[in-house]
Amino acid sequence: MAPRTLYDKIWDDHLVATQPDGTCLLYIDRHLVHEVTSPQAFEGLRLAHRAVRAPGKTLLVVDHNVQTTDRSVGIADPESALQVATLARNAADFGLEYYNEHDKRQGVVHVIGPEQGFTLPGTTIVCGDSHTSTHGAFGALAHGIGTSEVEHVLATQTLVQSKAKNMRVVVDGELPDGVTAKDVVLAIIGELGTAGGTGYVIEYTGSAIRALSIEGRMTVCNMSIEAGARAGLIAPDDKTIAYFQGRPKAPTGAAWDAAVAYWQTLRSDDDAHFDAEVRLDAARLTPIVTWGTSPEDVVAVTGVVPDPDLIADEGKRASKWRALDYMGLKPGQKITDIAIDTVFIGSCTNGRIEDFRAAAKVVEGRTVKAGVRALAVPGSGLVKDQAEAEGLDKIFVAAGFEWREPGCSMCLAMNADRLSPGERSASTSNRNFEGRQGFKGRTHLVSPAMAAAAAIAGHFVDIRDLV
Ligand SMILES: CC(C)[C@H](C(=O)O)[C@@H](O)C(=O)O
Ligand code: SF4
């Protein structure tokens, strides 16, 4: 057999049928469902009098619309309350496992899947959510789907797909202190651009990727979609296997041994063909801050806001001017001179225990700058418990942060946590689009340590000056 990539292998193992035009039917092992993209899908099933094909392979959780404040009080916004109630009703009507807002296991869908061992290496995973690519960190083929596809998967446990091309992103070398997985992926997106990954599944390899923690790998794969890629993948290794040992839904006994034996085959063959390759030198990476309204608008924290007039392409030049205007910035402004009024630490990009540890290390014994609103929002109830067991919540609260209940929170303005017009945030989330965190809100994407440092200083600072 010709040498194959990791993507080729998982694809081949799930292929149900191929049409002459190249359209394929893939078997789906795991289906994660949240409240935003599922109501019409369940309604479709109801209208067609269909059941869910594989209830045991389907897991529901509420995340985008939940309040991150006291949950003994109902959700104030009627639309959000309705979406949450609808998911609960669909779970009951279709007999599906559901983590509601009072369940310890509740959290952002891409945080809770791996935590429960629902996500597993070598599986195909879908969710009506673009950041499903997160699960690729474990060597799962995971991608976002639309609502009509959610209905199709609920009904058939399969998905119509055509095969993507293979891209390899190699990050070799050692990351300098203060440079994190978030900076790695922002640098990659800066290199590829938001369309550079279009039509590809990206496999991340190289010594710097292998050295990343599981949480860091999830951060990298999470943002694959921001480079336009269908999915991101990292081959499972000993860290991956250790991560799943003892997880509630992970296999046990002989099934565990068989699974591990299979996972160990999940790597690209030596001579496997990649249609494109990008290489980065980890040692040259710096802490990054985004300056614009696209995740590709990256600059080193030591740098300045770029000058769009230096861009040759007229359309691109105009769009970057528009971004600067929206962001209220001028070319040449030093990044460390940009004052922020809001800090958000959380989301499926950076809402895991390691992220709160990194942020707490920066804020410990320091105080949030007067006038800055700082939110620390755990990615799940279990992350929250773990952080509290380690006393991190106390560190955040003592410094002047608000310590919240788990959910998507200020990652996007679908709940009460949002920016007001003109407000500017340092955010650990993954998108800085116009209005993403609230109407006319201005978002700068950074790592958890950089966000924490900005909360203390009231403006961006080079975290390397603090560590
Ligand atoms: C609401 C949902 C469909 C959306 C997504 O697909 O990613 C959201 O999670 C986001 O991050 O923008
Ligand atoms: S945390 Fe943000 S990126 Fe992740 S699923 Fe929620 S809204 Fe989407």
TrEMBL record:
Q: List residues binding [4Fe-4S] cluster.
A: 348, 408, 411
User: From which organism does this entry originate?
Assistant: Siculibacillus lacustris
Q: Which residues form the Aconitase/3-isopropylmalate dehydratase large subunit alpha/beta/alpha domain?
A: 8-458
Identify the pathway: Amino-acid biosynthesis; L-leucine biosynthesis; L-leucine from 3-methyl-2-oxobutanoate: step 2/4
List the InterPro entries hit by this protein, alphabetically.
3-IsopropMal_deHydase_lsu (IPR004430), Acnase/IPM_dHydase_lsu_aba_1/3 (IPR015931), Acoase/IPM_deHydtase_lsu_aba (IPR001030), Aconitase_4Fe-4S_BS (IPR018136), Aconitase_4Fe-4S_dom (IPR036008), IPM_dehydratase_rel_enz (IPR050067), IPMI_cat (IPR033941)
Enzyme class at the top of the EC tree = lyase
Query: What is the name attached to this protein's record?
Result: 3-isopropylmalate dehydratase large subunit
Q: What does this protein do?
A: Catalyzes the isomerization between 2-isopropylmalate and 3-isopropylmalate, via the formation of 2-isopropylmaleate.
A single GO BP term for this record reads: L-leucine biosynthetic process
Question: What's the family?
Answer: Belongs to the aconitase/IPM isomerase family. LeuC type 1 subfamily.
The Swiss-Prot or TrEMBL record lists the needed cofactor(s) as: [4Fe-4S] cluster
Q: Which reaction does it catalyse?
A: (2R,3S)-3-isopropylmalate = (2S)-2-isopropylmalate
Q: Which PANTHER family match?
A: 3-ISOPROPYLMALATE DEHYDRATASE, HOMOACONITASE, MITOCHONDRIAL-RELATED
- One MF term from GO for this chain? 4 iron, 4 sulfur cluster binding
